[in-house]
C-alpha cells in the first residue's frame, strides 16, 4: 500500500498501475531522499492566486518518469524533468504540463472518474460509484502532484449517509466495497468519521482525456469543436498505410496455415488494421473452410442476406450483387445504422455457364477510401466539407420481406468524423443504394458538384486496385476500420462478368472485429505488419502473451 507523506485518515484503496509506488519510492530513495518517499506538497484551495505543487525530481528518475509521463511532451534536454504542477479554484483543477499547456478538469468530472477499487470495479471495469450522489459542487480538500499522477483528497461531508435517497448536502457517494473484485457490498462514508476519499489519476490518462483543451500527441490542439482542416486526419497516428494501385506489387497477405495460431490471427488483423484489406492464401476451396476462417476473428453477423452467404447471379435477395453487372466502388450495408465491420469474399468458382457462355470478367476492385478522402480534402476542401456535413440516406429494399433504412431519418454523411479531434472515422459510400436526396434547395447543386468530385477521385486509375480473385485465395476487407475507432474504409466493386460465378463469405460486426483486433494486437505486440507500428501500450502491464487490462486503459 503506498506510503504517502500525508497519511490519509484511512488506507487509500487506490488500484495502482504497474509502476507500483514501492518502485517509485525505491527510485525516489536513490535521489538521496532519506525517507525514500516523495514529499508532494498538498495544494489547498486558493481562490485566485492558486498556488501549484511541484515535486522536483533528480535526473536519476528519468527512465521512470519517461515511462510514467510519456504522455507529456519530452522536456528539452537542458531542462530537468518536472512532473506537472497542479492547482485548483472554483469548480476545476488545473494541471500545467511541462510544455506549459494547462488542462482544466471539473471537480465533478474528476470525482466521477475515480477508479479506486471502491469507486470502480477492478475486474469488470464498471463504475460502482453513484455518480448522482456526488454533490454538484464537490470540491477537493487538496490536490497533489505526485510521480504517478494527480492525487486528489476529497472531504468526507456531513450527514449520516443511508443507502436510500441522499440526504441534503451530505456526501452521499455510495461506495461499494471489495477491492478484491468480489461482489461489492455497500459501504458508505459517514460524516461522523469525516472519512476522506483519495483518488489518483495517472498523468498519461489525464493527458489523453484532457478536454479543456483537447490534447493529442500528434495533432494540434483543437478547439474541441472539431477542426476538419486539421493537418492530420489521424491516419498516420493510427498507423494506417494508405495505398493506391501500386499496392498490387505487394498486397498484404497471410497464409491460411498461419491462422492455426492466435498469433497468426493477430498478424492477419494487424495487416487489416494497417491496410484495410488482406488476402488469405491457401484456403481450402469450400464454404465450410471459408466460414471456419472468418470465425477465427469473430462470430458472423447475420443480416437479411443470411449468415454465411454463398451466392451467384440469381438476383436472390433482390440486390444487384446477385447479378452479373459491374458494381462501382462502394461500401456495403450503408443502410444499417451500424454498418457491418468486416467483409470476407472467397471465389469458389467461375466457369462457363451450362449454355456454354464462357467465363469472363468478374475482376474485383479495391479503393482506399481514406486516401481518396485525403485527396478530396486537399484538392477540393469545400466538397470535402459538404460530404462531411450533408446527411444522405440509403436503403435495401429489393426483397419484399425487407425494407432496411438507417435509424436517422436523413441518414448519415458520406464522410463521418470524430467531431472532437477532426479525425476521419468512416467512409460510407454506395451511390446505387442511395435514397431520395432530402436537401434544401440551395444545397442540391453544391452537393452534386461535391459528389462528382468525390467520384472522380474514387474512379481514378491511380487509386483503383484491380485483381482477379482465384479459388483458394480469400479476400478480407475492412468495410469498417479497425483501430481506436471503428470506421469504414475500403471500397470494393467488380467488373461485369459472364459465365457461372460462385462467391461465398460473410460479414462481421464492427465492434466485434475491433474488440478482437484490440485484444490480439495487445496480446502480441511484437506482431509485425508492413506498415508503421502503432504501439499498443497495455497499461495493465504486458506479461508475456497476456496482459491484465488496467482500469486506465484507452477506451474505458
Ligand atoms: C455480400 N452480399 C452478396 C451478401 C450482399 C451484398 C449486398 C450489396 C448491397 N448493395 C450493399 O451494398 O450492402
Ligand atoms: O461479386 C463480387 O465480386 C462483389 C459483390 C459485391 O460488391 C458485394 O457483394 O457487395
From TrEMBL:
The EC number on file is 1.14.11.8
The record's GO CC annotations read:
mitochondrion
Question: What is the top-level taxon of the source organism?
Answer: Eukaryota
Which reaction is catalysed here? N(6),N(6),N(6)-trimethyl-L-lysine + 2-oxoglutarate + O2 = (3S)-3-hydroxy-N(6),N(6),N(6)-trimethyl-L-lysine + succinate + CO2
Biological processes per GO annotation: carnitine biosynthetic process
User: Which ranges are annotated Polar residues under compositional bias?
Assistant: 182-193
Pathways involved: Amine and polyamine biosynthesis; carnitine biosynthesis
| Gene3D superfamilies associated with the record | 3.30.2020.30, Clavaminate synthase-like (3.60.130.10)
Question: Molecular function (GO) terms listed?
Answer: iron ion binding; trimethyllysine dioxygenase activity
All residue ranges annotated as the TauD/TfdA-like domain in the record: 261-507
Give the residue ranges for region: Disordered: 26-69, 161-193
Names of the cofactor(s): L-ascorbate; Fe(2+)
Q: Where is the composition biased (Low complexity)?
A: 58-69
* Pfam families for this protein: GBBH-like_N, TauD
Q: Where is the Gamma-butyrobetaine hydroxylase-like N-terminal domain?
A: 89-154
Print the keywords alphabetically: Carnitine biosynthesis, Dioxygenase, Iron, Metal-binding, Oxidoreductase
Q: Which PANTHER family match?
A: GAMMA-BUTYROBETAINE HYDROXYLASE-RELATED, TRIMETHYLLYSINE DIOXYGENASE, MITOCHONDRIAL
Relate the protein's function as given in its record: Converts trimethyllysine (TML) into hydroxytrimethyllysine (HTML).
Which NCBIfam families does the entry link to?
A: carnitine_TMLD (TIGR02410)
Annotated family: Belongs to the gamma-BBH/TMLD family.
Q: What is this protein called?
A: trimethyllysine dioxygenase
Q: Which organism is it from?
A: Ceraceosorus guamensis
Higher taxonomy: Eukaryota, Fungi, Dikarya, Basidiomycota, Ustilaginomycotina
Amino acid at each position: 500500500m503506498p506510503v504517502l507523506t500525508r497519511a490519509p485518515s484511512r488506507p487509500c484503496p487506490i488500484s495502482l498501475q504497474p509502476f507500483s509506488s514501492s518502485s517509485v519510492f525505491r527510485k525516489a530513495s536513490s535521489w538521496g531522499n532519506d525517507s525514500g518517499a516523495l514529499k508532494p506538497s498538498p495544494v489547498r484551495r486558493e481562490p485566485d492566486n492558486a498556488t501549484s505543487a511541484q515535486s522536483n525530481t533528480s535526473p536519476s528518475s528519468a527512465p521512470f518518469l519517461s515511462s510514467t509521463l510519456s504522455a507529456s511532451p519530452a522536456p528539452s534536454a537542458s531542462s530537468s524533468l518536472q512532473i506537472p504542477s497542479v492547482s485548483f479554484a472554483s469548480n476545476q483543477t488545473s494541471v500545467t504540463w511541462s510544455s506549459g499547456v494547462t488542462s482544466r478538469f471539473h471537480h465533478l468530472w474528476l470525482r466521477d472518474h475515480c477508479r479506486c477499487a471502491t469507486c470502480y470495479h477492478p475486474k469488470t471495469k464498471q463504475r460502482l460509484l453513484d455518480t448522482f450522489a456526488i454533490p454538484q459542487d464537490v470540491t477537493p480538500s487538496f490536490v497533489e502532484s505526485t510521480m504517478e499522477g494527480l492525487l486528489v483528497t476529497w472531504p468526507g461531508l456531513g450527514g449520516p449517509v443511508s443507502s436510500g435517497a441522499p440526504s441534503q448536502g451530505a456526501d452521499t457517494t455510495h461506495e461499494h466495497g471489495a477491492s478484491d473484485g468480489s461482489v461489492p457490498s455497500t459501504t458508505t462514508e459517514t460524516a461522523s468519521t469525516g472519512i476522506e476519499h483519495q483518488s489518483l489519476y495517472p498523468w498519461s490518462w489525464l493527458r489523453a482525456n484532457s478536454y479543456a483543451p483537447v490534447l493529442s500527441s500528434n495533432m494540434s490542439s483543437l478547439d474541441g469543436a472539431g477542426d476538419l482542416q486539421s493537418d492530420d486526419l489521424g491516419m498516420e497516428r493510427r498507423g494506417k498505410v494508405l495505398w493506391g494501385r501500386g499496392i498490387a506489387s505487394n498486397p498484404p497477405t497471410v497464409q491460411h496455415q498461419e491462422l492455426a495460431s492466435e498469433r497468426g490471427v493477430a498478424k492477419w488483423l494487424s495487416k487489416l488494421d494497417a491496410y484495410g484489406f488482406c488476402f488469405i492464401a491457401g484456403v481450402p476451396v469450400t464454404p465450410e473452410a471459408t466460414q471456419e476462417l472468418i470465425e477465427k476473428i469473430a462470430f458472423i453477423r447475420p443480416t437479411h442476406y443470411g449468415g454465411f452467404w454463398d451466392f451467384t447471379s440469381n438476383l436472390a435477395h433482390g440486390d444487384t450483387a446477385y447479378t452479373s453487372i459491374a458494381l462501382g466502388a462502394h461500401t456495403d450495408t450503408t443502410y444499417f445504422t451500424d454498418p457491418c465491420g468486416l467483409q470476407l469474399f472467397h471465389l469458389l468458382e467461375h466457369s462457363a455457364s451450362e449454355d456454354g457462355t464462357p467465363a469472363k470478367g468478374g475482376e474485383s476492385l479495391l479503393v482506399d477510401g481514406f486516401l481518396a478522402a485525403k485527396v478530396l480534402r486537399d484538392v477540393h476542401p469545400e466538397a470535402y466539407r459538404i460530404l462531411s456535413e450533408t446527411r444522405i440516406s440509403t436503403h435495401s429494399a429489393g426483397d419484399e420481406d425487407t425494407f432496411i433504412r438507417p435509424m436517422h431519418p436523413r441518414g448519415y454523411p458520406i464522410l463521418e468524423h470524430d467531431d472532437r479531434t477532426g479525425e476521419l472515422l468512416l467512409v460510407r459510400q454506395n451511390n446505387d443504394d442511395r435514397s431520395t436526396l432530402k436537401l434544401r434547395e440551395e444545397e442540391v447543386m453544391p452537393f452534386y458538384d461535391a459528389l462528382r468530385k468525390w467520384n472522380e477521385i474514387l474512379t481514378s486509375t491511380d487509386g483503383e486496385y484491380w485483381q482477379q480473385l482465384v479459388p483458394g485465395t480469400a479476400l478480407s476487407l475492412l468495410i469498417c476500420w479497425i483501430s481506436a475507432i471503428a470506421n469504414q474504409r475500403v471500397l470494393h466493386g467488380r467488373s461485369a462478368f459472364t459465365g457461372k460465378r460462385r462467391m461465398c463469405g460473410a460479414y462481421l460486426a464492427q465492434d466485434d472485429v475491433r474488440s478482437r483486433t484490440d485484444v490480439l494486437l495487445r496480446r502480441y505486440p511484437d506482431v509485425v505488419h508492413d506498415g508503421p507500428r502503432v504501439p499498443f501500450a497495455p497499461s495493465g502491464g504486458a506479461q508475456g502473451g497476456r496482459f491484465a487490462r488496467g482500469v486506465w486503459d484507452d477506451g474505458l
